[in-house]
Amino acid sequence: MTPILLAIALLFNATLCYVAVCAASPFGNCRKCHGWGFEMKTDRKGRMKRGKDCRRCRATGKRIRVGRWLYNRWARTYRAGA
Fold first, then answer.
1. 3-state secondary structure of 15
2. Is the dihedral of CA 38, 52, 69, 11 positive or negative?
3. Which of 9, 24, 41, 59 fits a disulfide with 37 by CB distance 3.0 to 4.6 angstroms?
4. Which secondary structure element, helix H or strand E, spans residue 43, and what is its range?
5. Is the C-alpha dihedral spanning 19, 23, 28, 31 positive or negative?
6. Using an 8 Å Cβ cutoff, are 63 and 30 in contact?
7. Is 20 left (phi over 0), alpha (psi -120 to 50) or beta?
8. Is 48 helix (H, G, I), strand (E, B) or coil?
9. Would strands 27-29 and 48-53 be described as parallel, antiparallel, or unpaired?
10. Which regions of 1-82 does DSSP assign to beta strands (E)?
11. Sign of dihedral through CA atoms 7, 8, 13, 14?
12. What distance separates the 2 farthest-apart alpha carbons in the chain?
């Protein structure tokens, strides 16, 4: 198998795996708060305490995956055009 065909096969396999993840679990952890929904801060004594709510995920800890977001846009456009 040539290196180009191997690279194409690996890329295709990675794409299919990502599509399966997006279909099975459309929401992933927020990259900013790591799925907690808030930021952790330390007080003056060095103890951990809860900080402000995460603005990126609106304190849910979950965000829609990029692949699922693209699929939703495509499906919405397809339904509007049909």
1. helix
2. negative
3. 59
4. none
5. positive
6. yes
7. alpha
8. strand
9. unpaired
10. 27-29, 38-42, 48-53, 62-64
11. positive
12. 62
Tens digit of pLDDT at every position of the chain (82 positions): 799 999 999 999 999 999 999 999 999 999 999 999 998 889 899 999 998 999 999 999 999 999 999 999 999 999 998 6
Place of tokens 């599509």: 19
Distance of alpha carbon 59 from alpha carbon 52, whole angstroms? 9
The token pair that represents 31 in the structure block: 């990259």
Dihedral-angle region of residue 79 (phi above 0 means left; psi in -120 to 50 means alpha; beta otherwise): alpha
Reduced to 3 states (helix: H, G, I; strand: E, B; else coil), residue 82 is coil
